[in-house]
Amino acid sequence: MDTSTTKAAREDPPAHLTLIVDLNPLQWELSSQASNDTPLSLSQFLAQLMIFINAHLAARDDNTLAVIGALPGYSVMLYSTDDSPPDDEAPARHQANSFQPFRMVDGRIASRIQEEMEKSTDLDGKTDRGLVGAITKALCHINRVNLLSVALTNNPESTSAMAPPSSQSPRMLILSISPDASTSYIPLMNSIFAAQKLKVKIDVCKIFGSDTVFLQQAAYLTGGSYLVLERRDALLQYLSMCFLPPASLRKVLATPSQDKVDFRAACFCHKKVVDIGCVCSVCLSIFCYPITRTSCSTCGTRFPLQTLKRLGYIRQPAAQANGRSKPNGTANGK
């Protein structure tokens, strides 16, 4: 590493990391099954996650952190360095072999996760709402910290003790175990565009399950990294080598890159992921096959009938829709 790179790394502002933890109980139960090649339970995951969190906070004393949990149907803020500890929190006993500030952070995060997991009983496939809500909360939190930082920076009377954590280099890390939910496509894309506006990198670590199309696009469009674990028992090594370094050091490190990105979208009519669809030329709404309408359901723009007839998108008779043609074999029922 040359001198200029080292100097730039020292002059970088403190890093603000927002962790979004997927806490879907059903998926964690599947991940911990012994039939998997490398089973990973929630308790094992949390043990390695706490080490990663401590490493981020220890890398620089003014680094900041926010942890948000995505549960079935809702999301919740689990921990933030901006928040003061609750009044009813009992002081932890000092241990010679543990650093007290780290132990307090680990205890607060673990207790909040346990509380939310005990309350989470709805497993009816509402993980899409929890993930989108968690990303939205993360962006709102980052924007609030940015505004507060600018306000105190412009105030000459502000002291160093009042200075908020700098968020000039904020980033987001999503630890995902749930599959894609096509119903979350529109709000998720809006969140991605908001992250681009705030210049927030979204990193994604796929711990369990198949690739997620929408999170691939989130990482690619915001300049982040998308990583699928090959060995879940080496989670800590993946987190430390790929997601712990700040953005300034990633230029000189061989961070994982996406060889290919799945740019498929979900249609607005049936909320299904489609390979080929029809796009409204006015509002860019996506439809899988507009045979049930002659106008856009989003903006009301009427589609040209001649174009629909030429492309074969006019509603066919019932016999042809079922794969049976009329005796004369003419198209479009004529």
Automatic annotation (TrEMBL):
The keyword DNA repair applies. One of its GO terms (biological process) is regulation of DNA-templated transcription. Gene3D superfamilies: von Willebrand factor, type A domain. InterPro entries: TFIIH_Tfb4/GTF2H3, vWFA_dom_sf. It is found in: Nucleus. One of its GO terms (cellular component) is transcription factor TFIIH holo complex. Its main location: nucleus. Belongs to the TFB4 family. Component of the general transcription and DNA repair factor IIH (TFIIH) core complex, which is involved in general and transcription-coupled nucleotide excision repair (NER) of damaged DNA and, when complexed to TFIIK, in RNA transcription by RNA polymerase II. In NER, TFIIH acts by opening DNA around the lesion to allow the excision of the damaged oligonucleotide and its replacement by a new DNA fragment. In transcription, TFIIH has an essential role in transcription initiation. This is General transcription and DNA repair factor IIH subunit TFB4.
